[in-house]
Fold this sequence. Notes:
CATH class: Alpha Beta
Distance between the termini: 19 Å
Helix content: 40-55%
Shape: globular
Order of helices and strands: HEEHE
Oligomer: single chain
Structural class: alpha+beta
Radius of gyration: 11 Å
CATH architecture: 2-Layer Sandwich
Amino acid sequence: xxxKVEQALAKIRPMLEKDGGSVELIEIDGSVVKVRLTGACxxxxxxxxxxxxxxERIIKQEIPEVTEVVAI
Length: 72
């Protein structure tokens, strides 16, 4: 599953990098994916919306067994 998540994140990164940020996979705990937002995304007031409406939505579309994406 790690490889599938990395592939999904690779599709998301260009959008984040356009705004000076990025995302990295930290771990997969069962069906929960833990990521770290980096660069401009870290501390951005919109980061929670980016995480849930963007990153989580895309990962769940690509990998239906994922139930949640959380930032650590």
